[in-house]
Amino acid sequence: MGTVTRAWIPNQHGAWAMLITPVLVGALLAGPTPWHLLLLAAWLAAYCASFFTGLAVKSRRPGRYQRQLLAYAAATVILGLPLAIQAPSLLWLVPAAIVAFAVNVAFILRRNERAWVNDAVGILLASCVGAGAVLVGGTPRLDAHALLALTVVGLYFLGTVVYVKTLIRERGSAAWRRASLLLHAAYGVAALVAHWWLAALIALALLARAALVPGRGWTPKRVGLTEIAWTLLVSFVALLGLPA
């Protein structure tokens, strides 16, 4: 069973929250409908297709991942067609996904797929899919509140990518730690300027985490569990929106 799972399920555990959260936020903003389940399934299938395409490119052995590529590509099309018919406004996600995929492949060819820019493009695409979730909701209004909520969630994940690098791949790097602190501080300043006191408080807590956790030897599992809690909290604040 474990071998089958490894062969078919991407092992990028941190990516799942970044993929799912914007869709859930968009669904809650616009009112959940059965179309959101289809959108989420199509989005996850597309991610899996992209992941295994990346492995095929990186390994230069496309035949090794042929079954996964065909299965996930077919699932993406089959799940996506009803969505395109129901909500043609979602079709703008196709060119956005193609651009993001091209960027990802370019970084893979350069053996630098862990680059922050590559992660940022993926998070931006996930935010776009979150906007798509708003468009298939019960009250499909992509208004200022929805855009702000999706932006907050996207910025949180951008900061988290930098923060996690200071704990694992860039552990001990003063430059990455400074970048993490500056980014989280900027979030707090933006919230204060907007007089969004609850968001400013959360930003301060995230800044404290970025300052205090690196160097403490946290395991990836512990980091992942704490980030689940932060993701839920940030999403809740984003859904509340700016105070009236």
Helix content, binned percent = over 70%
Q: Look at the helices and sheets and give the structural class.
A: mainly alpha
Count every helix, treating DSSP H or I runs of 4 or more residues as helices: 10
**Uncertain ranges:** none
From the alpha carbons, calculate the radius of gyration and give it in angstroms.
18 Å
Number of strands: 0
Could you give the distance between the termini? Answer: 52 Å
Oligomer: single chain
Report on this model:
- It contains 10 helices and no strands.
- It is an all-alpha fold.
- It has 2 domains: 1-141, no CATH class; 143-244.
- The radius of gyration is 18 Å and the shape is globular.
- The protein starts with a helix and ends with a helix.
Summarize it.
It is built from ten helices and no strands. With 244 residues, the protein is mainly α.
Topology readout:
Blueprint: H1 2-8, H2 15-30, H3 34-59, H4 66-86, H5 93-109, H6 116-135, H7 144-167, H8 174-193, H9 197-212, H10 220-240
Features:
244 residues, mainly alpha, globular
